Amino acid sequence: MSFLKPLTRTNRSRWGTTLRTLATEASSPHPIRDCTRITPPYAKLVSNLEKVKRVLDHRPLTLSEKILYSHLTNPEDVKPVRGQTYLKLSPDRVAMQDASAQMAILQFMLAGMPTTAVPSSIHCDHLIVGHKGADQDLVNSIENNKEIFNFLQSAAEKYGMSFWKPGSGIIHQIVLENYAAPGLLMLGTDSHTPNAGGLGAIAIGVGGADAVDAMANIPWELKAPEVIGIKLTGKLNGWTSPKDVILHLAGKLTVRGGTGHIIEYFGPGIETLSCTGMGTICNMGAEVGATTSLFPFVNSMSSYLHATGRGPVAEAARQHAHFLRADEGAHYDKVIEVNLSDLEPHINGPFTPDLATPLSKFAEVVKKNGWKDEVKVGLIGSCTNSSYEDMDRVTSLAKQAVEKGIKSKAGFFITPGSEQIRATIERDGQTGVLEQVGGVVLANACGPCIGQWTRDDLDDKEENAILTSFNRNFKNRNDGNATTMNFLTSPELVTAMSLSGKLTFNPLTDPLVDASGQEFMLQPPYGDNLPQNGFIPGNLSYTPPDISHPNAAIQINVDPKSTRLQLLDPFGPGPQGEFEDLQVMLKVKGKCTTDHISAAGPWLKYKGHLENIAHNTLNGALNADNEKVNVVKNVFSGKDGAIHEVGREYQALGKPWIVVTDHNYGEGSAREHAALQMRYLGCPLILARSFARIHQTNLKKQGVLPLTFADPADWERMHGGDVIESTEGVADLVAGRPGKNDTPEGGEILLNVRRPDGERYVIKALHTMSKDQVDWFKKGSALNAARG
């Protein structure tokens, strides 16, 4: 299958440059599209909501509640209670990126359906490595991943899914440009799916098994979230950008503060934000653990829909505007007010997205920590900040540098979010200006943001600082180097600080030096929210038709000898009674994200091969007992080994094992491999101080029982080498009998533990299993339960 078109040239632009571009088969702005399949069924949703409102005695509802409850499969039969009720929902759409789509498709194939029950799309964005620049990187990545791309395209054609080829763009930008709509309920197999909240959708990041539910017409289950209201007042000005709203909130809420909540924005300040700016804010809401984030329908959304050829969606939304905003008097579980006029630019990091520092204090932090005053590389783009507005504003800064005869002192990379953005900013000249200051344009893909980055500028393990407009900055994430410090900020600050080359540079107070040695101050960035001459689609060969029809004649072939793809065998059933003799193999200390549990980067090539990717299981986890990463003791042989090795050894001995973990276990990506791999290697239970939402659900989907300490301090008592001799409460759970101290949120499980020296103690743990989730656990996985 061919994925590329040749290069051609464009005319001069508003920025005064002439640039080459990939062949553009349509140079005029978007025509109005057939929006039948992308317009939410507003009349039906409003009707469903009226049924729920009657049950709730017509109390005022938040926008989050209105959209969720209108998608209930049984609106007459449930009285939702936030934080307690498990909702059975009917999503409107599914979107999958290429790394996670592999396992989702392999699971969907087991469902035996001829097509998907809801419109679904596959986006090739994660497997493209950033290195030399877009042209060569795309060719190399297609060649290196052709087995995967061909598999995904064949599956899309067979089941009637839309297939966005490599080079088309990043999933979340593509969704915003093509599929998102106010009032939509969408699932995406990526944690930053909430980006679509910038267009008023409830878009939730999930694992592949959740996506399969929606595609297989199985009601999707979600515990009714609580709602955090963010009241925005004032207006952004100067160097402050929409990114600073969520950087500031991440500092307030922390990486756990949004867990179990939807973040809903309201207040007069929302009318001052662009649609893509709101998308940026919603995108990074994933970093505080929120289920999703969203904004009510406002004029900028309508403008964006019209600009992207979806005027009919905008008009339908406008006719139902009352449905697409919170009711007057709606109650939020918590309210935070942010005055945009007073907000300061922020820089967050390193190594965690919630370590927020106002720009005015950042130089002091750099000096206090003894960090080298150097920006090694600046990177702008990613799914968080790759809109036309972002690129136009940074170009206004780069243009000033060009006029003063200077270039970026740091390496400088630009990732357009989509082929539409790439083509439009080349036509309008932004790309040329950014290249003139030393910028290298990478492919329309995730690239360095998710570890797909080949660096030539760094000695092994050299401590260095990079500034990015990305959303996540865990250790090792971007380049595999544990000493690379990734500081998250706006694309405007990335650009300014890259021009200076200094980590302490503050463009509000510090001058740059021009080619003649004279000091000058950068003027604040400016730019258009939308292109004055409209968007152009660029290379249409990347783009699927508006409607994709299934073709049962298509054969999906998986080579049994492949190292990249492996057909799945269903997991065996879960326990029918209490657990006995569970070996505590590992006690994890500190942050353990899905990057620690199942790393990305070079491991992405094994996302479709469970046996091979299981070799990276917990390879970033810190063992609390020996202070070593990815080293545990096999208590039966007395030898140390990597975690996956010891797990396989225990499995071969018929010894089930568990992991004891710290707070917010599974934070970060939606990757279900972090759950699949544990189950595959013989781990039936995880005991944590607390869980991240997506990962906890992914564990349940794969038949792993997630438990939390009733007293988080009990984490200190347990160690690797301990044995859970028996449990009390699991038998009641699987039998459907009431357990001890059951609540609407779950129940209690007792763990009877023996230390290696023979001492015994009891740990009280809690579960949050719903009736359906217990069935998944009994039958070995959610897919097993669905198949009967």
Automatic annotation (TrEMBL):
What is the recorded name of this protein? Aconitate hydratase, mitochondrial
The record's InterPro entries line, in alphabetical order, gives: Acnase/IPM_dHydase_lsu_aba_1/3, Acoase/IPM_deHydtase_lsu_aba, Aconitase/3IPM_dehydase_swvl, Aconitase/IPM_isomerase, Aconitase_4Fe-4S_BS, Aconitase_4Fe-4S_dom, Aconitase_dom2, Aconitase_mito-like
Domain annotation Aconitase A/isopropylmalate dehydratase small subunit swivel: ranges: 583-711
State its Enzyme Commission number(s): 4.2.1.-
Chief site of localization? mitochondrion
Gene for this chain: ACO2_1
Task: Give the note describing cofactor binding and stoichiometry.
Answer: Binds 1 [4Fe-4S] cluster per subunit.
Q: Where in the cell is it found?
A: Mitochondrion
What are the residue boundaries of the Aconitase/3-isopropylmalate dehydratase large subunit alpha/beta/alpha domain, all occurrences included? Answer: 65-501
NCBIfam families listed in its UniProt record: aconitase_mito, PRK07229.1
**Record's family?**
Belongs to the aconitase/IPM isomerase family.
Give a yes or no for keyword Transit peptide in this entry. yes
Q: Which UniProt keywords apply?
A: Iron, Iron-sulfur, Lyase, Metal-binding, Mitochondrion, Transit peptide
Superkingdom assignment: Eukaryota
Q: Which cofactor does it need?
A: [4Fe-4S] cluster
Q: Name one Pfam family in it.
A: Aconitase
